[in-house]
Specification:
With 111 residues, the protein is an alpha+beta fold. It has one domain (2-97): Alpha-Beta Plaits, CATH 3.30.70. Helix content is 41%, strand content 31%. The protein is built from four helices and four strands. It has helices spanning 15-32, 59-70, 73-83, 106-109; strands at 2-10, 36-42, 49-56, 87-96. A hairpin with a 6-residue loop joins strand 2 (36-42) and strand 3. The radius of gyration is 14 Å and the shape is globular.
Length: 111
């Protein structure tokens, strides 16, 4: 499984706004496009930072699903203009799970 570890630095004072929009709009849209999402998780030491995971069966699936999502009307017309101004920056670490790795409770997160 391919896992993106996504670390976001939110514009000062905007984390709650970001979390509200992200959990209400972005996570359901990502899941509808077939992506597995875990999080978001807030940084307990930095009020302007959060982390979340996005998972794919393969690197090819990642490429395909990201293209579908980011070239789609929902992202372009409703989400990009709201989310991107709230971000100062972000980092993505692309990982691959080791054989036998389990993500406990993932099934619940996919709903």
């Amino acid at each position: 499984m391919i896992v993106e570890v996504r670390s976001y630095r939110i514009a000062p004072g905007r984390r709650e706004d970001f979390l509200e929009f992200f959990t209400a709009k972005a996570i359901p849209a990502l899941r509808e496009h077939g992506m597995k999402v875990v999080g978001p998780m807030i940084d307990t030491e930095n009020p302007n930072k959060l982390v979340w995971l996005r998972m794919f069966a393969s690197i090819e699936e990642r490429t395909r699903l990201k293209k579908l999502f980011y070239e789609g009307e929902l992202w372009k017309r409703e989400m990009e203009g709201v989310i991107m101004p709230m971000l100062d920056s972000y980092d993505v670490i692309l990982c691959e799970t080791v054989p036998g790795m389990a993500v406990e409770g993932l099934e619940e997160n996919e709903r």
